[in-house]
Design goal:
The structure is a single chain. The chain is of the alpha+beta class. A five-stranded antiparallel sheet has the order 4-3-7-6-5. It has a two-stranded antiparallel ribbon with strand order 1-2. The longest helix is centred in the C-terminal third of the chain and has 36 residues. It is rod-shaped and about 110 Å long.
């Protein structure tokens, strides 16, 4: 039961933390979409974004792409933090990507060993013929590290609870079975000839047994 509890608690925590993380990514995509414009058919990114997206490999990235008629992704504007790298597009056929719906997925980041969580949304901009895909990504290592700390804390807490429960059960057994131990000693004394009958007062559950033993003696 404790193992199942630990698994369920950890899974619920990870799901809730990931959901909060994705809310932040959605806000970044919405800000990109709200600030983007089209000039002479070209998509122009907002003039100001998150400062971390302005510095190379700082863990926060965004990218604006379009879906061509051939079903390919064409990068229009990347964040400065990507440098010469690109964000992997959403999985699946670009032409079948549902407009207005957010897609979340994991991918490798531009920095070595970096793992990103990406939010992507396909939409349309006035004055631009092809659909545009806005993507925002962030290093998910803080999220994963937080989940690991929660798991470690949960395991320690459940181990302590398990030890406490075992101690409580042992104590309960010793106290609960004490009348049986007394009954055993009395029977041993009768068998050894040191007593003629059982004389101790026993709980209601054991009193019939003591009476039958005295009748047998």
């Amino acid at each position: 039961a404790l193992v199942v509890t630990g698994v369920v608690l950890t899974a619920q925590y990870q799901r809730a933390a990931l959901s909060r993380f994705e809310v932040g990514l959605k806000e970044q995509v919405e800000n990109l979409f709200a600030g983007a414009s089209v000039e002479d058919g070209q998509v122009i990114a907002p003039p100001f974004t998150d400062p971390r997206a302005q510095r190379v490999f700082q863990g926060r990235y965004w990218q604006i792409s379009e879906v061509t008629k051939a079903g390919k992704y064409k990068i229009l504007v990347p964040s400065r933090s990507l440098w010469d790298q690109v964000l992997a597009p959403p999985p699946g056929d670009p032409l079948k990507l549902e407009g207005g719906k957010y897609v979340f997925y994991d991918t490798k980041g531009p920095a070595p060993g970096e793992r990103l969580r990406v939010a992507a949304q396909k939409t349309y901009l006035p004055g631009h013929a092809n659909p545009v895909v806005f993507m925002a990504a962030e290093d998910r290592s803080p999220l994963d590290n937080e989940a690991k700390r929660f798991l470690a804390t949960t395991v320690i807490a459940l181990i302590r609870l398990g030890v406490g429960l075992i101690a409580a059960v042992l104590l309960q057994v010793r106290i609960g079975l004490r009348p049986l131990f007394v009954l055993r000693r009395e029977v041993a004394q009768v068998r050894a000839g040191k007593a003629d009958a059982l004389v101790q007062k026993y709980p209601a559950e054991l009193e019939p047994l003591a009476a039958e033993l005295n009748a047998l003696v």
